[in-house]
Each structure stands twice: as structure tokens, then as C-alpha cells.
Specification:
Chain A has ten helices and no strands. Chain A is mainly α. The radius of gyration of chain A is 18 Å and the shape is elongated.
Chain lengths: 188, 188
């Protein structure tokens, strides 16, 4: 496997997750990850700033996808409609990555530092969505409320989706949660 | 002012916030805080584990108050009704502490480490509320959804409430946001 292997990133990712689960996140080094993937540490650093970024470097793309989906929603789409479209767009983003997502969640759940980083990424995602809504003319506090509701749905849907017993697509779960939130809010 | 001053905790809190804003959070020591309050470091440590806890030691009481409010809601109250009661209960908790809350928010906003801690506290609060709902017989994912919606409303209401231009009570803002969430969800 040469240094120009087109799937070096994917191999490094798979190797890292295997090692994080086998021997623990703290005890895994970049050298270990590169070795397991049959690549060099130099190649590792072409894709990731450090081992933590193996778990988090997808979040910039996810944020971009969600913000663009809000930006591209037709003018007459409501705030919650635009947020829903953004959350549904993540379904395709993750469709081929369920195994990675499951393993990633196990590693994150076991480390306070990683759970904190995940919370920060989600808070940033929520703020970006609120700002995208602001640019569409949605005023505060509605923009922040819709963004927070969307991120809450995304997070809960994602946690359900990666369970072994769950058979629905991520998008189906999102729509179910959206209907549930509507029902819960209507009851007050 | 003697060592048995009954408001030692309040004076330490006020002194700490003054110093955090005057010279920065990092550059303020426990000795500085005690000196400004006219007390000893020993007294400081009777109330707070470290200077960060001046900002966060209220969250355990807040969590207890919100969980008890959910626990004490009559059986026939809905999930979102119980969460709303819990969020409204915070209004009384904070009513005499608006100045402290404003200053605290300024300090937290200026420090990534403190913002992270705030996110963790809010995530823990949300999980505690979901668990309290579970004990009332509210199943998942509704319990988590209602808890997340409640915490989103609490956070946004709180940020509005501490603004200088805001004249409403925290509880009024909470009820306004709840109505807005209902409207936003109904539009989808």
C-alpha cells in the first residue's frame, strides 16, 4: 500500500477507532495508529492535527452541510422547516458511516474530555444554524429556539440510530422526533 | 467583620466577581478574593473548593430545585408541563441575583474553559430532568426531548433576562419562549 493510497484517511480512521477500543484512547499514540494502518505518522498528520481530530474532524463538514441546507431552503420555508431540512441532510452524510459512528460514540462516552468536546461542537453547530436563520430574516429568540430544538432532535436521533436494536434510517427517526416535539409542545 | 459573619459566602462571591472583571479570571487568586472580602483563605475554602466553584457551586442547588419540581408535579401534569414548572421555578431562584448573574455571564463568556464547564452543567441538568420524567412514567425519547426543550428555553430565557434592556421577569420570558416553541413546532 503506497503513500498515495487514496483511502489513507479512511484507513487511519478505522485503525484509530480499533485501537481506541482495544487499548483505550489515552494509551493509543499516533505512531500506533499509523502502524496499524500500514502508513507513516507523517501521512497521519497530513489528515489530522492529532489523534483527537480522528473523532472530530467530520464536524466542520457536518456544520457546512447543515448551514448550506438552511441557506438553500426556499424563501417561504419556515424557521423550523429549514432546520428540519438541515437535520434531515445529515442522514445522507452518515448513511455509510454507521459502524464508525457507533464505535466513535463508545470511545467518546468513556472519556469526559471527549464528551466535553462533543458538547462544544454541538453548541457551535446550534449557533451556526441560528445565525443562518438570522440571515434568512428569522428574528431572535425564534432563530435560537428553532436551532436548539433542531440540535436536540439531531442529538437524540443520532443516539437512537446507533443502537443495535434500531432498524430505522436516521431521517425516519428525525421525523418521528419532530412529530413528538410538536405533540409535547402542544400539550402545554 | 468577624470570622462568623453570616454572609461570608455572599461577600466572597461578590469580591470574586469584582476581581474577575477587574483583573481577569486567571490573574485572580483565592488569597486576593479573601483579602477583598476581608476574610481569610481558610474561610474561602469552607465555602468553595476553588475559585471556579464561585461561579458554579449554585448549579447543584439549581438542579435539585428543578428535579424536585418535576417530582412534585401532580400525576396528571404532562411531560412538558412538568418541565415548564421546573424552568419557572428557577425564576424565584434567581430573582435576587440578577447582578451576580450578569457579572457571572460576562466572566464565563470571556473564557473557553468556563464556557465548556457551563455546557457540561447544562447537559447534566438536562439528563437529570429526563431521568425525573422517566420516574414519572414518561418514556424515551419523549422524556429526553422534553428535558432538552426545557433546558434550551431556560438557557435562551436566561441570556435574554440578564440583558440591560430586558425588563420582564425571567418567568415571563420563559412562558413567552414556550409559546414561541409551540408556534415554531406547529409550523412544520
Amino acid at each position: 500500500m503506497g503513500r498515495w493510497d487514496p483511502d489513507a484517511e479512511g484507513r487511519l480512521r478505522t485503525a484509530a477507532l480499533e485501537l481506541f477500543l482495544e487499548r483505550g484512547y489515552e494509551l493509543t499514540t499516533v505512531a500506533d495508529i499509523a502502524e496499524r494502518a500500514g502508513l507513516t505518522a507523517r501521512t497521519f498528520f497530513r489528515y489530522f492535527a492529532d489523534k483527537r481530530e480522528v473523532l472530530f474532524n467530520g464536524s466542520a463538514r457536518l456544520q457546512q452541510l447543515m448551514v448550506e441546507t438552511v441557506n438553500n431552503a426556499p424563501k417561504n420555508v419556515t424557521a423550523m422547516g429549514a432546520v428540519t431540512a438541515a437535520v434531515l441532510a445529515t442522514s445522507e452524510f452518515f448513511v455509510d458511516n454507521r459502524d464508525f459512528a457507533c464505535r466513535r460514540s463508545s470511545v467518546i462516552a468513556a472519556h469526559a474530555e471527549l464528551r466535553e468536546r462533543e458538547l462544544i461542537k454541538l453548541a457551535n453547530l446550534s449557533r451556526s444554524l441560528a445565525e443562518a436563520l438570522n440571515r434568512r430574516g428569522v428574528l431572535e429568540p425564534d432563530a435560537s429556539l428553532a436551532a436548539e430544538a433542531g440540535i436536540a432532535i439531531f442529538r437524540i436521533a443520532f443516539d437512537l440510530w446507533i443502537r443495535n436494536a434500531e432498524r430505522r434510517e436516521l431521517g425516519e427517526i428525525v421525523l418521528d422526533l419532530l412529530a413528538r416535539l410538536k405533540g409535547l409542545s402542544a400539550e402545554t
